[in-house]
Amino acid sequence: MATIEIDGKSLEVENGTMIIKAADEAGIYIPRFCYHEKLSIAANCRMCMVDIEKAPKPMPACATPVADGMKISTLSERAVEAQKGTMEFLLINHPLDCPICDQGGECPLQDQALGYGKDVSRFTEKKRVVEDKDIGPLIATAMTRCIHCTRCVRFGQEVAGIMEMGGTGRGEHMEITTFLGGSIDSEVSGNMIDLCPVGALTSKPYRYSARSWELQNHDAVSPHDCVGANLHIQTLRNEVKRIVPRDNSAVNECWISDRDRFGYEAVNSPERLTQPMLKSGDHWEVTDWKTAFSKVVQGLQTEINSAGPEGVAALISPLATNEEGYLFQKLLRSMDCDNIDHRLRQVDFLADSQQNLYSGAELPLEKLSTISSVLLVGSNIRKEQPLLGLKLRAASLGGSKIYAINSLDYHFNFKLDGALIVEPSTVPAALAGVALDVSRIVGTDLPEQFSAWAQLGGNRDVYSDIAEVLVADSAESLIILGDSCRQHPHYSVILAISNWIREVCGVKRIDLHEANGVGLTQNGCVPKNSENNALNLVSNPRSAYLLYGLDCVEDSIYGNVLEDSLKKANFVVSFSAFKSESMNHADVVLPITPYTECSGHFTNVEGMTQRSNAAALPRGEARPGWKVLRVLANQLSLSGFDFVDLNDVNSEMENTISEKPFEYPHDIEITLPDKHNGQDSNKLFHRIMDVPIYRVDPLVRRATALQKTADNSIRPIAGLNVEQAREFTLRDGTLMNVVTPEGNGISIQVQADNRVPVNCIYIPAGYIETAPLGVATHLTLEEV
Amino acid sequence: MTEVRVCLPESNLEEPWTLAAYESTGGYQAWRKIITEQTPPEDIIENLKSSGLRGRGGAGFPTGLKLSFMPRNAPGQKYIVCNSDESEPGTFKDRDIIRLNPHQLIEGMAIAGYTIGATVGYNYIRGEYYEPWARFEAALTEAYEAGLLGHSLLNSDTSFDLYSQRGAGAYICGEETALLESLEGKKGQPRFKPPFPAQVGAFGRPTTINNTESLSSIPPIMRKGGKWFADLGVEKSGGTKVFSVSGHVNKPGNYEVPLGLPFKELLELAGGIRNGHQLKAVIPGGSSVPVMPAANIMACTMDYDSLQQAGSALGAGSVIIMDETTCMVKMLERISYFYYAESCGQCTPCREGTGWLYRVIHRIRNGQGKLTDLDLLVDMANRIEGRTICALGDAAAWPVQSFMKHYRHEFEAMIQSDKAA
Q: Which of A245, A367, A368, A381 has the highest CB neighbour count under 10 A?
């Protein structure tokens, strides 16, 4: 510890602390531009100059470590003169366009110019002008305003792990720009907007739509992934204008993903539903709530009377809040119906036979950045859970070892110490291979049920590498199961094997969920009888369906099966914030609100339940889902729905939903690896599927700027192994026919993709175009 | 006065850049002795300290002390780097040292590397210096073939590998940390210190960076002893120094003389002022150091202390001589343009200030000056000096401050005559 004095205030600080940090902690203000707590020190803006006793010249507070006995003044004549000097230099080439700059009002340069600048400039030469750039659909640029603090550059290099911005040129001609004028494609690029201390990088979708001081802040939580990033939703006159991060060191630190930031565009889209509607023949008629409710009550009662409660199936989007989920399932169960599920991207429900379905993270998410080793299984974590990707990158920079077993050789923003890229059906086998090596190290036999899988996985050096690393520091090791596991036809096998590894050597596990999957599971949006799981509800047509917040084709991986069942059903109700394909099959549409207009709670994968507040009043006649469900229950004369406000719902939930302990299914009856039903496997390609980052939910699919990014393609594009692509006369964009063994086929653009292993074809889900393929695991490929 | 050659080869030597020529004057004896006797590094450092050798790149930091800062016993790779990115206007001494005496530099780097425990060295040579680079490369080949570089030298455990690296034309890469960035293949921009290169240098490893002339001085010091070298010069300025004399003299060129030589004698060596003109001013250490009027410099001896006391600096020993025909406004305009063009753009005062300085001076010379500009120039220079990551800011500020101090009247005259016209 060192004893120092800043502006006469005596402080005890850790040796080696930089002066600016010590001052910040003591609440002493030092002006700065380039310094940022989460980035490396650049010391290039020279704004934070302070006066240190006995030092011959003013020193930068961000890059000068404290020393015992140091006396620092931030206010002495010499310090202030240095700060003012820097400010003068910063302003000479900065345009005086604050009135038309989006940063105005929340601009560190503007604020500090007030404190350290002069009202009249001594600079009478011509100002520098920098040619403007186009760096993609999310970030607007005005590079003449740039003060070259390099925060955006360092963010890319250090935090995001992809260096998209850099400085070119020397001296006055130095420009911050993208490499060869390319676009910024990082999934967390929007953070550069927050980091930029001037108006050089601003939000493109928000551009010129409000002034920062007019905006109202609302505390919310992001529903797009299972991290639960904390947000400020900012509104003007009841319209969501933009979303910025809310600091929470336990969850998102000061970052949010682009999905969290720009997903709001959907809530202002013309596709919003603002009126209850009834189908009349082949067209829709606007109606009022009263009529809509009576139609729903009538329809449901008719179907229950004829087919019994089992004739009703209820499917809910994983983006729903806990309260919506709770009331939805309560409504169903009050009618003696257990047919409810939110897992429309899962096909293997064998693990449900265990009583406990809740599995999330076994460690706080903030620990991820310091974990010592990680095995990723079936996960493109960077795009599935962007903020967790950042944490793994931090871990990797700190020396953690990270391995992956995947079907696509994803481009991560961290270094992999080893990767095994195999066709999807071999993923559980590869995990069994790791388990076998773990069993050898810890001296326990691998349970017989896993041996057949381990045999299929063969012998590979990487198994023992992974096993050794996991066992060596098992308390600090982690297995992460990603979206591809959840979508895997042998998800239960992956769960069981990973669980066995976890039990014999003590590694931790995170089973990544979709969106609010943990909250919905805890609050009853899964069937008590596993037979009533989503896949069964979809593939065995029911007479009535309640769809909650779903675009029925894109939000499931079952393809057109759900659509077919809806066509056969007698009565379909769609609770939705948006017009969609699902509407075509519905009889009644009830307009609910997206999370920006609906308060409620989300539970992240760690089990942390956070409140998200409505930021705007509902549009038109749309209403928050929990209110709609409450009134509908009353209309159905169900008891126990007399809630006055959200708190009532909450307190009942807390009493009903007991905290579930961590228990994992481990004695699941293991299905053995399947052989390809006698077909010539040479002609069959393994299908690799994932849901691209901007196709995952109804909000991002309608967020126009996100849809224009490089991470998204408007139409799906299939990827073929590079070597095999040569066997076909493939040019990028060539159309090919892809057909399932059942004969369902589509034509799709195919391109060579260096991530795809041999004998595989990558076809994304989340598109109407690829839906006919359903969950087929093998496909034939023909040239058109 | 005649030259005393330590770093430059004796003038009667034929093809002095060859190994044979170098060895005929006692070359590589020191290196061979160190390898065979495994001389303790502390002894080498003591010898260097007693020689009074100070960094010849401009800052004048004692070389022995600098080498002693390296954690020589720390595990892992360490590096010795030679800074041959000589780019300061007026400086051309290293070019001749490498061109004419490359082996002495190689021997000096090997000894310095041995002293700090570095088995790898890099010589970063200014990109425009093609001929010196080719000579250095040829000398490297000779030294490797003679078994003086490489692994297990003279059957000992001592190894030393040496590589050359050509710069790409940026002045800033003469700043040692920018040089390291460039050496690592990055954009040449100075790093902020701490950490110093002795802790985190090239490729993240402890590194010592010395000037070409400093390293070239080491072999003779090892052969003849620190005292011999110190006695060549004066107190606190041991040894000889190569002065690059340019400008309005009859015989511009490099002159290696003992430190402490009166300026007058150096001027005579260079053939005196051209065609009977009068000496007006001298920039004694390269374009960045403060200018000195004739009267001041004539009273000085050419060593670190004398010039510093007179308000300037020895710098890299780049003596720019100006006679009475010189327009000081034009001179300062040209100097300011150089720093404006060469600022790396990293930190604010230098990036923004150098361009502003140049434009104001340029405006004055183009007849659009105002008297208030002169105070503005000084004020601006004061706000750049000492506020930047590296010394380029100082280098841009000092000429402005000193020109204003000594020749303000020329600026005023130009502004006023323009007003009259």
A: A381
